[in-house]
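WARN retry 2 of 3 for item q-0093 after timeout on previous attempt; input resubmitted unchanged.
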Amino acid sequence: MKFDHVGLTTEKEQPNERFVKKTRVWVTDPQLHPFKIEWLRYCDDSPVADAIRNKPHVAFKVENIEKAAEGLKVLIEPFASVAGHVVGFYETPDGAVVELMEYDD
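OK item q-0093 returned
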């Protein structure tokens, strides 16, 4: 696993947001932020669970999401992100929210 970014919820519109249709959330590119922060702004009708909306998450690049997610509670099944890689959201046994990201390269 390799650290990628921290995701934080906001209600304020952010520069260069992109819309994720599947989760109905506006997101920023954490690679453009000097501290690797991803801002998430949820639509009222977003299907994203409160466990994700109300907590920050830490994202990691992994070689294999299925293997890396063993023993974790699934919050959002893996799906193709707006950037083209596959992401899934999980809760650790101690309650932390993590995003696992699998890239093709």
